[in-house]
């Protein structure tokens, strides 16, 4: 396959249902009304020369290269700004047009350096292509040198800006504005003097508002904005479509390759989650895949105080299997367990849980979703009957009121945030959607260019349920509930019971204000807006789930949506924004100890029988241990071996001291990962993993969209992750013989009704599929609960507000809440090994000016952060984004170890840890705590490899 | 908190959150039956009802009886 750029139709698609027929160059074409002449021509295969138009942004009509002749019209209109009309007769190639276009091109080229042969974009430059297309052979003007020889801006770690090559087409400005919604770029000066700049003229890209999404680089027709990697290795020669491995948005990319070398990741226009957009992580931060710290050979050691010894795969599998068998014989089969990863593919996750259930002989399997979205599983299953979000991302285009609670989409889910922003700003004369944000912090989306939330409710951390109940109080007592919907779709008695509860005076916003700290009038207004503002859609994140009442909050959200009839059609719904790329998939695949793939309880005999017959084993009907329970059991001395694939529980799980005590008490900790992560400090066996670029499989994003992941290069460690698990299973005596991940998917489809119609062949054909994919819905289900809830009747659940046991007091007077930042990902193991550190070199503690002043803390000072569980140090930044009494930090860096201070309080229903609320004290400090120093020493000791050279 | 104390804490937490259910004791018992592994159940049965809220205590007794009866 040779390299083909993605098609560019010149102007965006029109969504009109009406069609228009016209004639272009003697051929008839029918397109939706509102389409430009340029796009209509492109759709019939005629490309009109163009420079300032591209289909990701609205046309601007500045370059005058796309001129056409239209019968009955005077002059030569620009085809990019001229909409089609019925019966129009258009000519795109005439001698007159050719002459005009040549003249335009000549002007452009006279002001452009003629160093094509040594230019990074040579062969992939639209200016060059168009000069060829119009037949430009020589330039009559003197080279004017008006803006040649300007200094390049190399400040962005991933792309360069060379203003000398700029043709002032403004595609970059429009992309930043319309696609990304950041508005970082401006044009200064006019005509030939115009110059693009990031922010102020004095700013460079890195210091500007730019978030490095790459939309401008993608839009630029010249080498003005170009990936550094292209400068370094040259233009790509082939491409493979695959899925981003970072977050739950699940953007589709073209991996553009030169041999086995990845040149760039380019967002794929036909990707249904991202529609051609990307963020800095997926677009640029893939350097970790080849990072020198990646471990490529298996390693073993008897004790964690020994150095690591490199071994061959065969020895590693034999040793691992013998250790697991020894422990099983000595302590019983329940002493073994494993953790699946939300970063790995569905197929890999499915195999790990199968190894545990069928090979280890117990249900001690859990997944990192335990610490993020397990309450979503519990809450949505209880109320709606299925553990997943109800909408596709496109649905937001029909939303009138967006309610965001406990999510920070511009940082956590940036590409979807850009789509939200488009809707919030309104488009083509349609007014924008209204916005309600419920978050202790003033997140970026609350106020950004052209966007201002109608209501921001800055609640006290830990009072989500109280706020939602108060909103329900307003909706029910003011008669705003959609009773017709409720009577038809939900259990009326349960509704009445719930309505009676929320209507009690103690649940009024006024009464709860002292608890939630949310202004009652503001809350009433927000509730009215959600209930009466048209299509209302709720988007939520970890600020909802990671609480002692995480599951209750999810159910409270579901109650609100049902009470207002906001379920079962486009534009509405309840949408969890998933953290990691395959959280949804890991949950779907039966990674939880109490349920098999497709959310069927392990005690259900019929389901068990299905699996038992297929696998030829007997399954334990009792639920197994969840991660925190495993650690407790380990400390009690009865849980001894753990297979941990692609997760770093020591860094990501709460109360680090407890996690390390649990790990230290085990006899065999197997870490299967790319790097010697923090958990590996306590590991006895290290199995090197492969990256998403090195394997085949599928990920499922937050919209339930199953998307192919395709191998573009050979695994550096030799084996894809599913092969590692299979070889381990074989070493333990299981008769597994998968030759390709597609066979694993066939097994999943065979055993899971909601996946019945899924296969790799179907996915290749459709691009992606949203489960359920069944005989009734062979093309998948973008929207759920359309004709009724999956569970039958929607269930209202009374959610009484119960304050958390983690309370502030004189010793710990502040509330700490945690979150994430755009440029870094989760525990940072990947992003910290990329140039993204340019934006987030360390975790910072946000503190309100009043609290800072009380403690004599200034921005940049080192502070000690102490809780009942432990203490750490980091640097402070003083800001009024957080309310007085609240402090905030991220957890991307191992040295900070924010989880040293988090407690092991957890969600009542799922044990999802309460990361979002910890009572803390802040004080001045002059350096690392004892824990940080000891841990640093342990890490260094533990990472020794026998050759004498430390691996890190 | 050691493991037993943690189980008592968890059982109480479940009971508090399910207190508004139509049949709270059965709901708590069912929840524990569905989500706790056998060893955790055994541990809390052995521990008895000390420190448990009335609903949690009743649920644990209910489960323990069902287990013994079976
Ligand atoms: S990279 Fe993205 S945010 Fe930065 S200037 Fe370009 S479009 Fe704007
Ligand atoms: S930087 Fe590229 S996209 Fe922006 S105005 Fe210049 S040539 Fe056009
Ligand atoms: S938004 Fe998420 S899925 Fe998309 S490119 Fe960024 S990290 Fe990848
Ligand atoms: S492409 Fe139409 S005016 Fe530039």
UniProtKB/TrEMBL annotation, chain A:
GO biological process, one term: respiratory electron transport chain
Chain ranges of the 4Fe-4S ferredoxin-type domain: 157-188, 201-230
Entry keywords, A to Z: 2Fe-2S, 4Fe-4S, Iron, Iron-sulfur, Metal-binding, Oxidoreductase, Repeat
Gene Ontology CC entries for this record: membrane; oxidoreductase complex
Domain 2Fe-2S ferredoxin-type: 18-96
Keyword Iron: yes
Domain 4Fe-4S His(Cys)3-ligated-type per the UniProt entry, residue ranges: 96-135
EC number: 1.17.1.9
Domain of life: Bacteria
Residue ranges of domain 4Fe-4S Mo/W bis-MGD-type in the record: 237-293
GO molecular function: 2 iron, 2 sulfur cluster binding; 4 iron, 4 sulfur cluster binding; formate dehydrogenase (NAD+) activity; metal ion binding; molybdopterin cofactor binding; NADH dehydrogenase activity
Pfam families: Fer2_4 (PF13510), Fer4_Nqo3 (PF22117), Molybdop_Fe4S4 (PF04879), Molybdopterin (PF00384), Molydop_binding (PF01568), NADH-G_4Fe-4S_3 (PF10588)
Family named by the database record: Belongs to the complex I 75 kDa subunit family. In the C-terminal section; belongs to the prokaryotic molybdopterin-containing oxidoreductase family.
Protein's UniProt name: Formate dehydrogenase major subunit
Lineage: Bacteria, Pseudomonadati, Pseudomonadota, Alphaproteobacteria, Sphingomonadales
Automatic annotation (TrEMBL), chain B:
Residue intervals passing through the bilayer: 44-64
GO molecular function, one term: formate dehydrogenase (NAD+) activity
InterPro entries reported in the protein's UniProt record: Formate_DH_dsu
Keywords associated with the record: Membrane, Oxidoreductase, Transmembrane, Transmembrane helix
Protein name: Formate dehydrogenase subunit delta
Origin superkingdom: Bacteria
EC identifiers of the protein: 1.17.1.9
